[in-house]
Structures are given as C-alpha cells and as structure tokens.
Amino acid sequence: VLENQDLRDSIKPQKVEFHSLNFNTTLHWQPGWAREARDALYFVQYKVYGQSTWQNKDECWGVSSHVCDLTHETSDIQEPYYSRVRAALAGVYSSWSLSCRFTPWRETMIGPPMVNVVTNSNKSITVKLQAPHSPYKRKRGSKIPMTNYYDLLYQVFIINNLLDEQHRVLVYEGKDKVIKIQDLRPGVSYCIVAKMYMPMLDHSSAYSSRQCTVL
After folding, report:
1. What digits encode the pLDDT tens for the residues 188-208?
2. Are residues 51 and 143 in the same domain?
3. What is the DSSP string of the chain?
4. What pLDDT, on the 0 to 100 scale, is given for residue 205?
C-alpha cells in the first residue's frame, strides 16, 4: 500500500494552469516528479465555479498529452471556471491537481492586430488595421472579432530606421481601422508596429510583426 501511495504522490500532475489568447483557452500541466511519470496517462475535468459536479473532458480522458483544449467548455466568458487533472500509471491513480480559478473575460490575453502598410507617393503611408478574432462564430459562420467583447483601441507606432531600430514613436491611438501617417521623408525606411490596448483593464497585447516600407 505504501508503495502505491508513493507512486500516487510521485505521478500527481504539477502546475495545472489555464493559458488563454483571444479566448482560445488551453489547460497545461507538468508531469509528476517520478521518472516513470513520463508514461502516465491523464484525465481532465472542468466545472463552472459554484457547480457541485465536475464534467469529464472526453477528448482529454486517458491521454498522454500535457495540454487540453478547453476553448469550447469556457465559452461563457464572464463565468469563472476550474479544471483539475489526475494521472494514472500501472493501475494506480494520483489524487486530483486543481487549477486556479479562471475567468476568460478577465484573464485572456489579447493578441496583436494584423497590420497592412500601403505606401503613398506623397510623403505618407496608409496603415490598415484588423483586430484579432475570437474562436467564436456568428450565425453566418464568420469569427467574432475581439472588439465585440472589449472596448479596444489600436496603438500604432512608427520606427524610423535611420534613427534607431528600437525607438518606437506612438503616432496613433484610437478605433479607426485605416489611418494615414503624413510628413514623412522620401527615401527613408520606416517600419510600423501596432498593439491592441484595453483601457478598462489596462492591458496591452504584444506588438504586431513589423511592416516596413521605403518611401
């Protein structure tokens, strides 16, 4: 019995955490500290905070993976959720490892916008911006943009490659999807990066990839 107890403890999953980007939500965990824990199988359950019964996640039931997609199960984005994982090896089951409470609306990370730069001949460039999309779909099938869920602003930065690669100057903050940056110098290489900014929670996305152009 003691050996089994030791095995139970040593294969118990560690660091059970939700990771979420634009409401694409996965549960991650690490195997127990025993060497043989590499061969364990895992079982995932989830529930809304306050519910008494746990639901099995069928696609993550008896799996060798250390990640489980719970995007669909956490689609009520204002609700707080819990998840838990246990491991099995050689007929022995560990106890459950519990995640922290996770509320998608409060905790999902916002991704950067898509940026498209169009060069105009007369010392200006036009920047077209597109907010990231959630995994959730409208009735017609198109994905719902993150701007439907939050009051989001675009922040657009310009990098003058003559001056300093790392020096980003904020040139626009607002909701317009198309902006024009004027009074630029011909023959100079400029790069544009952008972020999404959420004033209410004071969150920013990562920077978009740079889009560069020479006037």
Report:
1. 889 999 999 999 888 999 999
2. no
3. -HHHHHHHHHH--EEEEEEEETTEEEEEEE--SSGGGGG-EEEEEEEETT-SSPEEEEEEEEES-SEEE-TTTT-STTS-EEEEEEEEETTEEPPPEEPPPB-HHHHPBPPPPEEEEEEETTTEEEEEEEPPEEEEE-TTSPEEEGGGTS--EEEEEEEETTT-TT-EEEEEEES-SEEEE-SPPTT-EEEEEEEEEETTTTEE-PPPPPEEEE-
4. 97
